[in-house]
Design goal:
The chain has 449 residues and is mostly helical. It is built from 19 helices and five strands. The strands form two sheets. It has a three-stranded antiparallel β-sheet, with no helix packed on it. It has a two-stranded antiparallel ribbon with strand order 1-2.
């Protein structure tokens, strides 16, 4: 490569880069745009290394050629390579579909890990296969429960675990409710090294502590003494990779979408649910801190632009503006804004030949308009109008809205409507006096339309 780091060979380097990144014949799209982006940094770094070596040898001629090569890169690389690659990456991101983990898959994976751990725990002391199998199961369970980056959990040291403990701040505990105080007495906490040397917390349930203690008891029989990693392999200074074990167990548990059960997707899923739950700013900061990044990264990158939030909440601003009523909602949060339900609304729908499932409880039946033949002699078309009667509805309280958001958050995220049985169970548990159809319409209108 050193022979090509001269200004006269720049075009050859450029052609090789485009070929490696899979540029098409028209020069408008890369097969691997990220490779095209990364290659620029690699080539510049190589030129800097060559220049540094030449200067140390006193070879000013070679150093000058490297400097000129870098100047040519600065002038031409962006227009020749980066601009197309950036455009391709933006298009792919906009067109791409991200499948977050299904709630049922997460539950299924968790149940599978618990069953496997309990099964292996009894034989881990006498079998290497059982011991390392239990090691992998506990690693996957920690990632799943804490929604941590797989690399952070994989590299936990034994000494990190030995410093774990329960919270003993009794003064702060007085401000918590009974359930939160019970969690303080049950969960243990340890601190590990996270991304960019941050210190991040990991929570340990009682069953996980039991499993890890079992691993530590039998550790000397299977793990070299020089290996300091908690989830160690049989080699020195080696550990199991969290991404590998998650991928393996996602398939073994027969999940519907095993490819979506990655540590990154699990973290994004939590951030999306936090949007639906409408956490306060300080609660969001606490969540971001636990996830191992600051609030800016959390809001800009991990919290995906949920269409649920954009359609169901942000759109209310434009509806209010369209009606000239923005001033009525001064000082209110988006979740508090409710467009008046008592106004008359006319909707026009194309007749599809099927009954619509979008009928509201306060709407009158559709009145058909006589069929009309088009002037061009095409098939007959029909149109239907729906009128909403003038009526006074019982407004949804903020407590009821919050209860619906919390209970049906998984349905909202997956853009599904809950069934009658689920809604009736919710109404009974939360002691809410409403018809199950009202709840279904509320979820559809507020979050899914």
């Amino acid at each position: 490569m050193s022979d090509f780091i001269v200004p006269t060979k720049f075009q050859a380097v450029l052609s090789a880069t485009k070929m490696c990144a899979g540029l098409n014949d028209t020069g408008t799209e890369y097969g691997a745009p990220s490779s095209a982006m990364k290659s620029g940094g690699v080539i510049r770094r190589l030129a800097e290394i060559k220049e540094s070596d030449a200067l140390q040898r006193g070879d000013t001629t070679t150093a000058e050629l490297c400097s000129q090569f870098l100047k040519v890169c600065d002038v031409n690389w962006s227009s020749e390579v980066s601009s197309v690659a950036i455009r391709n990456l933006s298009q792919r991101k906009r067109k791409g579909v991200l499948y977050l983990p299904l709630t049922e898959d997460v539950v299924q994976l968790n149940n599978f890990l618990v069953a496997e751990a309990n099964k292996l725990c009894d034989v881990a002391e006498g079998s290497a296969d059982a011991y390392f199998g239990l090691t992998q199961v506990v690693l996957a369970k920690l990632i799943l429960f804490n929604r941590k980056r797989q690399g952070e959990v994989s590299k936990i040291k034994v000494e990190d675990y030995q410093k774990k403990g329960k919270s003993d701040n009794t003064v702060a505990a007085l401000a918590l409710n009974e359930f939160e105080q019970a969690l303080l007495r049950t969960l243990e906490r340890m601190e590990i090294k996270g991304k960019k040397e941050r210190t991040v917390a990991v929570l340990l349930t009682e069953e996980v502590v039991t499993w890890i203690d079992k691993l530590l008891q039998a550790r000397n029989s299977f793990v070299p003494i020089d290996n300091s990693y908690l989830f160690a392999t049989a080699s020195e200074r080696s550990y199991f990779r969290g991404s590998d074990v998650l991928r393996k167990f996602a398939v073994q548990c027969n999940a519907k979408r095993p490819a979506s059960l990655t540590s990154t997707n699990l973290r994004k899923s939590v951030a999306c649910m936090a949007q639906v739950l409408s956490l306060k700013e300080h609660e969001m900061e606490s969540l971001a801190s636990f996830m191992g990044h600051d609030i800016r990264v959390h809001t800009q990158f991990y919290r995906l632009p949920l269409d649920v939030v954009q359609v169901a909440r942000v759109a209310k601003i434009f509806l209010a503006a369209e009606q000239g009523r923005i001033s009525e909602y001064a000082g209110k949060q988006l979740s508090d804004i409710s467009i008046d339900d008592k106004e008359q609304v006319a909707e026009v729908e194309a007749c599809s030949g099927e009954d619509s499932d979008m009928t509201d409880s306060d709407e009158t039946p559709a009145e058909p308009i006589p069929e009309i033949a088009t002037s061009s002699g095409q098939d007959l078309v029909c149109r239907a109008t729906k009128r909403r009667r003038m009526s006074t509805r019982r407004q949804w309280t903020e407590a009821e809205k919050q209860a619906v958001r919390s209970y049906f958050s998984s349905f909202i995220i997956e853009r599904k409507l809950p069934g009658k049985h689920s809604i009736e169970k919710f109404l009974k548990e939360r002691n809410i006096d409403r018809k199950w159809t009202n709840v279904k319409d509320h979820i559809r209108n507020q979050y899914l339309d």
